[in-house]
Amino acid sequence: xxxxxxxxxxxTVEQHILERQRAHPTASGNFSWLLSGILxxxxxxxxxxxxxxxxDILGATGGENVQGELVQKLDILANETIKSCLGYRGNVxxxxxxxxxxxxxxxxxxxxxxxxxxxxxLDGSSNIDVNVSIGTIFSILQRRDDLEPGADMVxxxxxxxxxxxxxxxxxxxxxxxxxxxxxGDGVHMFTLDPSIGAYRLAQENVQMPxxxxxxxINEAYRANFPEGIQKYLEWIKTDEAGGYGLRYIGxxxxxxxxxxxxxxxxxxxxxxxxxAGKLRLLYEANPLAMIAEQAGGVATDGAxxxxxxxxxxxxxxTPLIIGSKNDVKxxxxxxxx
Length: 337
Ligand code: AHM
Ligand code: MG
Known about the structure:
Layout: H1 3-7, H2 13-23, H3 29-58, H4 63-87, E1 92-97, E2 104-105, E3 115-123, E4 134-142, H5 155-158, E5 167-173, E6 177-182, E7 187-193, E8 198-203, E9 214-216, H6 227-235, E10 245-246, H7 252-262, E11 265-268, E12 279-280, H8 281-294, E13 298-300, E14 317-318, E15 320-323, H9 325-334
Parallel strand pairs: 1-3, 9-10, 9-11
Antiparallel strand pairs: 1-2, 3-4, 4-5, 5-6, 6-7, 7-8, 11-15, 12-14, 13-15
Helix pairs in contact: 3-4
The structure holds 2,5-anhydro-1,6-di-O-phosphono-D-mannitol and magnesium ion.
């Protein structure tokens, strides 16, 4: 091993959380224990995503079925992995997954079980069988302490607006496995080093550029978008716009990751088929909106800030326009709900 490698400073995510906790003495060790549970799950999911290709190659029957099964297997596996890694953490009271109809209550409310974890275990999973980036998205809330007797003790704890999140993050299983998280104190990014099985600090205080050169939307639905969005899509190709490129992966987490680093805008507007949009408020829009805002970006549903939306149901959908400040502002100049 070279001297340079020996002396290289490695900051793991656990160290990073502890260091930042020292700077904020009110933060609790309980919380880092919870976050480490989520990160353990994502390391297991990452390993399984990497192995999925072997399963595909070994699958004797081939064709659609095996591919479909594989996708489903990984979806379920990711969901179960997160639930089992968090189920024993003691401080998690409720888990809510995009894959499950109902929330899972682990413990009755008490001082210890104060956290609610909401997650999309494998976002963009239709991309697994074509070896395209997928990811996990998570959001963390605390149980409310202001509920009156008679309140729905589960749903009222869960259905809080996004600005109440105490943390949010995502992991992209791409050409490498990258994780970004925020606790409301900037966005920090880590890369999974498979040789030591640890997330290593890649970038602290990530800032989204104020403007980018990329727009990201499924333009095939163009005729079904609101008129204002169609006008924006005409404008973006003009000389006045100045040469935007289009990038659309079809995995929100991967499209968002690019937008965070390079700037630009991601749009999933309402369509005639899905008038409320397709993406889920609790597991997708809220956590990514918190990260975007913490990095200097913006997230809106065309009428209001995503983080101010008060959810009314678990699997509620929302239109989502998210990205660089100037780019989201530009979309708003064409379209308002
Ligand atoms: P899913 O929850 O069924 O996986 O759908 C979510 C995904 C997002 O990752 C992505 O942004 C979007 O669906 C793509 O949808 P479309 O194929 O309509 O463009
Ligand atoms: Mg998803």
